[in-house]
Amino acid sequence: xxxxxxxxxPSEAWIGGKNYYLSLFSKLHDDLDPTVDTVTIFTAxxxxxxxxxxxxxxxxxxxxxxxxxxxxxLAFRIANKLFGExxxxxxxxxxxxxxxxxxxxxxxxxxIKSLPWIPDFQHCVLPEYFSPEKLRYRNTIFKKYLANENxxxxxxxxxxxxxxxxxxxxxxxxxx
Length: 176
What we know:
Elements: E1 2-7, H1 15-31, E2 37-44, E3 59-63, H2 70-83, H3 90-95, E4 100-102, E5 113-115, E6 117-118, H4 122-125, H5 132-147, E7 150-153, H6 156-165, E8 171-174
Parallel strand pairs: 1-2, 1-4, 2-3, 4-5, 6-7, 7-8
């Protein structure tokens, strides 16, 4: 049995991301055999979760650690800088016996496997639409993700871009 997890923190600024996750959850829900695997969705305790109610095979865990504002957001950002991306959630994931965090990154020291997702390489193809700060940030984060043991891409086209623009060290998985 494997315990898979997702961090789901949709925002009005990224409706495409919300729709992507809901579509992914729908497909997983249709295919999931709960006697074999479990899926846990971690989200903010301030989020209205009506969109997730139909996924009755999933566990939904709401936590203040995933709030997008206030002291929790500040603590999350500081922990990301000091200990690595999403590191503040390690105890939460371990308390729910998570084996793999999908679509997000965790540092190796957490001993929880992660499958970070890179949706596209727009900043490489169209750098004029990104600030120098955003270009540096995306390049740094993408290098880290592409060095992870496994990573997730949206298409074969994204894999070609990854190979063209970066030194790919991990294994790519294409989600269609």
